[in-house]
Structures are given as C-alpha cells and as structure tokens.
Amino acid sequence: VNICCSSRQRVMAASTTSAAGQKLSRDDWRKRKELEEARKAGTAPAEVDEEGRDINPHIPQYISQAPWYVSLGRPSLTHQRPQPEKQHELSGISEWYKKGTRGETATKFRKGACENCGSMTHKKKDCLERPRKVGAKFTGQDIRPDEHSQPQLSFSWDAKRDRWNGYDPDDHQQIIEEYQKIEMAKRQLKAEKLQSELLSGNLSEAVVREKLADMREDSDHDSDVDEEKYADQADMPGTKFDSKTRHTVRNLRIREDTAKYLYNLDPNSAFYDPKTRSMRENPFKNSNKDDAQLQFAGDNFVRHAGDIKDFARSQMFAWEAYEHGTDIHPLADPTKLEVMNKEFRVKKESFKGEQQQSILERYGGEEHLETLPKELLLAQTEHYVEYSRLGNVVKGQEKIVAKSKYAEDVHMNNHTSVWGSFWEEGQWGYACCHSLIRGSYCTGEAGKLARKAGHQSSFMVPKPADEEEGSEGEDEGGKSLSLLEQHRAERGKKSKRERKEERKRKAEQEEIEKEKRLREAIKAEELREKEVEHILSVDERKRPYHSMRAEEGRVPTEEEMEAYRLKKRRTDDPMAQFLENR
Q1: Among 47, 126, 447, 563, which has the minimal tally of Cβ within 10 Å of its Cβ?
Q2: Whose CA is closest to 431, among 443, 423, 422, 441?
Q3: 241-245, 313-317, 324-328: which range is least confident on average?
Q4: What's the pLDDT at 168?
Q5: Whose CA is closest to 277, among 246, 249, 245?
C-alpha cells in the first residue's frame, strides 16, 4: 500500500510541474487538464512544435515529454526522431561514376608527377606504362593525361542492386532515332515501288493515289500518338476495336453458373486462384469420371470433340491471312472465312500433289511409296487397354497373341506333354513319363517310377559277379546302365580319346614348327648383328643411304622377339665377356 501511494504521489508531482520546471497551482493544473481533454476531443487546436507540425494529443506523456538533458523548454518531438548527426548520407539517384573521361594533359613535366609518363595521379612505382628508356621527367615529351578520380559514392542496399542505377535515358534516344530512320527508308522504298508499278502499268493511278494517302494517314497517326507502342495498345489479328475503350472480360462467368471453387469442396483438390479466377487443374482428378463427360475439367483441359478443332483451324487461318495482308474477321464474316479456308486447302493439296508428282517424274522411285500401313510395319496401334493389379482386362480389348508358324500343343504317341518339357543330366525329354527318347511311346507314371528306380527289365543287362569296380555297365557311383546308355557312353569315350590324341598330335606338330621358326629367327638375328657391326665399323660418310633406318610398319613376330632376347647382350652379366671371348 505504501509503494502504491508513493508512486501515485510521484505521478501527481510530475503532472503538476510545468515544462519549465515550475510547480503549477491547483487552478493552473485544472486548466491544463481541461485543455488536454479539449485537444483530445478536437474542440481545441493541437500543440505545434518548433517546425510548425501538429503534435498528436493522444500521444502518451512518457513519449511526448523529453528527458531533462535534451529538453528544449517547449513542446517538441525531436527527441523521438532520428538525429541528423547520426544519419548516414547516401548518394542521390542522379549521381554515378563517370565513364570514358580523362583528366587534364600537361604540356611540360610537373613537379611531383610520375617520372616515367608524367601523370600527376600516380608515382613511378605504380605506373602501368611501358618503362621508357628516358623518362618524361628528363625529356618533357609525350606526357600522359591524368587519370580521372572517381567520386566516392555511398548507396543503400536497394540502390546497389538496382539494375537501372547509372542508366542514362538519353542513350535510348539513339535507338528511337535509328528505328525512325529505318521506318522512313521503308516508306520511301514503298513509294518508289508504287511509282515503278504505276509506270509499268501494273497498277492504276487511282490505286496508287489511295495507297499513298493511306501511308500519309498512318504517318500522321504515328506522329500524334506516343511513339512507344505497348502490347495492350496493338490490335490483335482478327479483331478490330479501340484498345482505349476495350474492357477486360477474361474469366467472367454468368451468375447462374456454378463457381469453379464450388465443384469440389475438398481443400486438397485443384488450386483456385482468386485474383485471375482460374483453376487450371481438374477438380475431379481423383474420381473415375471421364474428362469429356465432366461439366468442368479445369482450364488446361481442351475439348477435342465436336467442331472445336475446325474452329481452332479457322482461327489460325484468320490470323495467318491477317499477317499476309488479307483483313478478315472470324466473327463478322464466318461464311467468307470458311469459303477462303476451303479454297486455300484445295489449292494447297493440289500444289503438294503436283510438286510430289514432278519430283517422282524427275527422279523416279514411285514403287517405294507403295508400302504397307505403319500398323503392320511397326506393329503399333492406337489400341488402348487397361489392366488391373491381377492382370485382368479392365478397359478395352486384350491384344490377340500372334501364333507361331510351327504346330503348337500337338501330342504324339499318347504323350500329354511336348518334347523338351523335361530336362535331366544334359538331355531333353517328355515331362509326362520322363522318357529321354524322342518319338517313344508314353509309359506314364510307370515310366517315371522305373526311371526313378534305375532299372527297366527290357533294357537292363545283368551285372557279372566277377566284374571289377568301374567296368562297363556301371557308372562311377555303381549305378547300373542300360544298353542304350552303355552304347552312348562307349561312343563318347571313343570320341574323347580320339579328340585327345588329335589335340596331342597338333600340339607336337606346332611345337616342332615353332622350334624350326625360332632357329631361323636366331640365324636371321645373327646375320642382322653382323650387318650392324659392319655398318658401324664403316665411316658414316661411306655408309649406304637409309642404312640405319628401321623398316616402317612391320611388327616383329614372336619368334623374332624370342631370338632377340636370346642374342641380346647383357652388360650386367659377369659371364657375358667370357662368352664373347669364347
């Protein structure tokens, strides 16, 4: 309670003290409070600071009252504003570095200038000129101009990143003048062309006079309006209206229609831009409905049914005709546009046919154009089929599998499977009876059991009691073999033995031939060494031409390399000298 009373007394004491520090009486304090209430109510004029600006009476006292060390003795808010001495001065928008300027050029050497080139803006050690044999200090000639000292500019964060900072608008005037000269030259050429056509008789005088008048009207109109034409002021092909009175009707809708954002109220559906009133994606994308059946499928959806394609082609034809000089409106003259488009298509097709026929008559090759359809050549069609996760056809018709030219699923000799459906020990067979003999009669499950047991009474040979291990009729594991298997094994053994002997004979023959070639290569190497020693012993002035030149493009054989290695002199071998002396 004491703390609250003391704080209230301080506030009352501060409020009863005037701006000059004198204590106010009760009547003065009451008048001051009434004046403040009147100012807040707007019945009394507000206080004015030293700069003549009104002070808001609703500003709290702790903001409007200045501290004692900066108090001016009158109402003011300067203590709340940025102080001038703390403000950083920035360069103006018209200030920039000067480019392409040079300083003054002296006629004689000045004291304190560069001793090499004579410039006053640097010393000799900082000079970038080529060092002269006799500097400008002593010759007083060819004194270079002083470098221009650029001003120290200070820019803000935005000014440093301004792409147009330092741009001179007068530079664009040169571009405007250049285009004006080009336009004048075009008009002059067009006038000369009309004059020449008039003299040649191709055009009448009335037509030429009318075209010249149109040119003058266009030039007068261009001089009256602004020279810089923007995209919104230009007439689009196929439309004729004043751009100044044109109203934007883009993305407007009839009030009876459903708004785009009301088709699907799911917040995760297609995005709706309220500024342009556009919804580019399909709001029913997650549903299984066809886009062509929907009332609205997004702004990016283009309908391809009906006459929309023909209308788009007519619009394109109107634009192209306008660019080639034919002024036609697709909305005002639809019949005329359709007739012109039809005539253009007929002439285009006839021209293409005549051009193709002339090329074929000149170069030939008409028989190569008579080919099969692309569907048969590339095996590609526009047939659309959708499958489920289980592989079943959901939409469309499944493609018919092309059959082979060979007979399929044809079973012979009571077999229920085809030949090659069974594989065992490197041989093919039938899966129904595990028979490995092609063309045999099917034995069914009995054949499987007999093969599994490893013996069949009609094909087995009894094993002699005194037969040694590993003899004929048994394999390495002691398993009995049939006569057919023994016969095949015997044929295989004989063929392996013969092949082994043949390989051995070939290896021996190759070894003999290799030794023979090696001996011949050693002899040739010895002759070459003798020839080299002879050439080296002869005076180089008496040597034959190209005697030390190697044969170009010849690769040494393996035998020649081996002979070189055998006959090579090894200086690090202690017995090499002994062998040479020997």
Answers
A1: 126
A2: 422
A3: 241-245
A4: 84
A5: 249
- Residue range 94-133, pLDDT digits in tens: 888 888 777 788 889 999 999 999 999 899 999 999 999 9
Which residue is listed with tokens 């599994």?
452
- Kindly report the length of the chain: 582
User: What pLDDT was estimated at residue 181?
Assistant: 93
Contact call for residues 272 and 264 (beta carbons, < 8 A)? no
Distance CA 89, CA 74 (A): 29
Residue among 396, 378, 379, 400 at smallest CA distance from 387: 396
Closest CA to 257 of 303, 297, 301, 295: 295
Question: Cα separations (Å) of 552 from 527, 535, 556, 563?
Answer: 20, 20, 11, 20
- pLDDT for 110 equals 92
Q: Are 368 and 345 in contact (CB under 8 A)?
A: no
What's the distance, CA 10 to chain centroid?
74
Q: CA 187, 189, 190 angle in degrees (round to 5)?
A: 65
Average model confidence (pLDDT) across the chain? 78
260: closest CA among 248, 268, 270, 247? 270
Q: Is 97 exposed, middle or buried (0-12, 13-18, 19+ CB in 10 A)?
A: exposed
Average pLDDT over residues 144-165: 89
Q: How wide is the angle at C-alpha 513 spanned by C-alphas 510 and 515, nearest 5°?
A: 110
pLDDT at site 139: 92
Q: How many CB atoms lie within 10 A of CB 264?
A: 19
Q: CA 445 to CA 453: how far, in whole Å?
A: 12
Identify whether the C-beta of residue 245 lies closer than 8 Å to the C-beta of residue 278: no
Q: What is the pLDDT of residue 188?
A: 87
Radius of gyration of the chain (CA): 54
**Residue keyed to tokens 């704080």:** 7
**Residues 455, 480 contacting (CB under 8 angstroms):** yes
What average pLDDT score do residues 238-250 get?
46
Task: Give 463's contacts (C-beta < 8 A, 6+ positions apart).
Answer: 473, 474, 480
User: Which tokens hold the place of 314?
Assistant: 């007519």
Residue 109 to residue 139: CA distance in whole angstroms: 9
- Mean pLDDT, range 314-331, rounded to an integer: 85
Q: Contact at 8 Å (CB) between 524 and 560?
A: yes
Cα distance between residue 278 and residue 261, in whole Å? 9
Tell me which H or E stretch contains 419: strand 419-424
Are 208 and 195 contacting, i.e. CB atoms less than 8 angstroms apart? yes
The dihedral formed by the CA atoms of 83, 86, 88 and 92, expressed in degrees to the nearest 10: 30
3-state secondary structure of 219: helix
- Copy the structure tokens of residue 300: 């990016």
pLDDT digits (tens, 9 = 90+) for 412-431: 888 888 888 898 888 899 98
pLDDT over 50 at 11, yes or no:
no
Parallel, antiparallel, or unpaired: how do β-strands 386-387 and 393-395 relate? antiparallel
For the chain, what percent of residues have pLDDT higher than 90?
Answer: 13
pLDDT at residue 267 in the model:
84
Q: Which of 522, 520, 523, 545 is nearest to 535 (CA)?
A: 545
Distances (CA, A) of 171 to 98, 175, 348, 364: 15, 7, 48, 61
Look at 346 and 300; give whichever has higher pLDDT: 346
